[in-house]
Amino acid sequence: MERKGRRRGVSERCCLLLLATAACSPTDDTAHKARGGDALAGESGFSGRTSTSRRVDAPASGVELGLGWDTARGEVVANRCIEFAPVQETGQVATLRMREVSDQSEIMESLGVSAAVSVNTMFASGSARASFARDATVKSNATTLMLEATVENGVLFAGPPNRPAQARTAFPAVDERSATTDAPSQGEEKRGDAVRLKPWAERLLRSKDAREFRKHCGDSFVTAIYSGAELLSTIQFREKNTTTREQIKAAIQASYGPTEMRADLSKERTDALNSTDLTIHFLQVGGGGGTIPTSREDLRKKLEGLAAEAGAAPRFHAMEVSAYTSLADWPEAVALPARAREVDAVVADYYWFLMTLQGDVEEILREPSRFDSRSGLAGAALADFQDQIIGLRASMLVAMEARARAGLPASPLEPVSYAFFPRHELDFQDLNKQLSTEPVASTTDRWFGGFVRQLKASVPYQNPNVLRILLPLPCGVVPPDAKPAAGDGARSAHAKAAVDWYARPQSMRSCELDPTDNECLTNSELGALQEYVPYRGGIACK
Q1: Is 381 found in the same domain as 285?
Q2: Which of 66, 77, 151, 366 has the maximal Cβ count within 10 Å?
Q3: C-alpha to C-alpha distances, 55 to 30, 46, 221, 393, nearest whole angstrom
Q4: Residue 409 lies in domain
Q5: Which of 326, 354, 385 is the last residue of a domain?
């Protein structure tokens, strides 16, 4: 997923042992970018440094094999510009993975929601996965595990046009003609046994510029479609004791694994899990029948029946897109980079994180007695922090709407300086001065690039997650009578606790998956964050 240089990854991955035909299938990691990259630089929309294909979420509006795809916009282009024949594989592939997440942004990343789709979801419902991530309730003061189970009924892919098309038996509800290729015009010569551009598309490419081709065909095409069923769920619980929290996490991860893992639950883990209230958020795409799971036992039964449901009532849920430049007959002299806009990705990433943070602050303002009053913002300062979050999200929407129109905002952004941390201030004064400039495309790009650069510089290490250390700690994280370690004052003890509670776990997950990620902070960087933690002393939890 092309977002902020992150690399997708998992903490747990295993096969659902449901059918003899099922087999493990690793999910692809996406390209990543080293820390501190230019906000204006394009970022590859495809997995790996040299690959020209990537798997993306199927759009809610539907998709057909061979249609064009616009990577930057995350949208289908309703033209077929290639000649191909549909080929259907058989059998099922089932995968299951679970990982801890800390906000909506991390859920979208884990689910492989592209930057373009993530941006679209800021204004509309988005794909099924993006809508699930947007609606999931993730709290900083709770532990949230995300489960993703997928059963695929074999892939329908674009094969060479000279090979016979195979029956679309896995998709009885879909018109078989929708996947067939147009027959060559009379007298047109076949040019080999390979997927290739249609003659009209090739003529368009050679007679016009690449921009005109992109308008009609996109930069990529849908080369494979996956059907079956997938189940997405977040499982959330609250526990301040570190040992008990790890026991519950291990028990949940084991509960939804294969039979061998479920049998290996220790008594301590079982007792911890049975005494814990879990909040479950659920989405199923494809399949049918049964009930909506409202308990962890219902969820386990749903997982066990997912393969049967996928076979009985499949639905398109994912697809693979490939760059036109990978075609054998693509003219080498014509460049058509399939790139997403990294600037859009940064804004979307911050936006979804701030959405979660806004909910965290609201919870603290609603029930302040549940939080330690010795550290973190409180009272009017905390309410002002929430207002700044809301205002910044509003400014992001204005900026993204202007980006979509390829023009500057019609009115200035809020003239508020978002000073979350000392020495890290986001001020739109200089950007607003540019609003009187003629709104040509180049000016828009410069303005939006400046917006993103300021946004990235508004928090230490370009890492929005560290904003959490401004929140007060939940009661019980630091005992009221706890004595600070030798040589440390009370302030440093609470500052360390705030960093360890709010920043360290998510940072360590990021480091495990990708040490070049902006959200992967070293121990020295985490230690340096302690200076930003507000501390007042006084009365702790009552």
Answers
A1: no
A2: 151
A3: 10, 8, 12, 29
A4: 341-532
A5: 326
Predicted confidence at residue 415, as pLDDT, reads 64
**518 and 492 in a common domain:** yes
- Give the model confidence (pLDDT) of 321-339 as tens digits: 999 988 887 887 777 766 6
Q: How far is Cα 29 from Cα 64, in angstroms, rounded to an integer?
A: 25
Q: Could you tell me if residue 247 is inside a domain?
A: no
Would residue 63 count as lying in a domain? yes
Which amino acid is residue 528, in one-letter code? Answer: A
Between 490-502 and 504-513, two packed helices, what is the crossing angle to 10 degrees? Answer: 40
Contact (CB, 8 A) for 520 and 466:
no
pLDDT digits (tens, 9 = 90+) for 437-476: 655 556 777 788 888 888 888 899 999 999 999 999 988 8
Provide the number of structural domains found in the chain: 2
528 and 399 inside one domain: yes
136 — alpha (psi -120 to 50), left (phi > 0) or beta? Answer: beta
The 8-class DSSP code of residue 269 comes to H
230, 128: one domain: yes
In a domain, 542, yes or no: no
- Do 427 and 353 lie in one domain? The reply is yes
Q: Cα separation of 268 and 272, whole Å? A: 6
**Whole-number Å distance between alpha carbons of 386 and 380:** 10
Residue 245 lies in a domain: no
pLDDT value for 162: 61
Sequence length of the chain is 542
Compute the distance between CA of residue 423 and CA of residue 417 in angstroms, rounded to an integer.
12
User: How many whole angstroms separate alpha carbon 152 and alpha carbon 230?
Assistant: 8
Q: Structure pTM? A: 0.70
Residues 219 and 361 in one domain: no
Do 287 and 404 lie in a common domain?
no
- Amino acid occupying residue 383: A
Residues 477 and 372 sit within 8 Å (Cβ to Cβ): yes
Mean pLDDT value across residues 388-407: 83
Q: Do residues 533 and 499 lie in contact, with contact meaning Cβ atoms separated by under 8 Å?
A: yes
Burial of 169 per CB tally in 10 Å (0-12, 13-18, 19+): exposed
Is the CB of residue 116 less than 8 Å from the CB of residue 69? no
Question: Are 316 and 358 in the same domain?
Answer: no
Confidence check: pLDDT of 289 > 70:
no
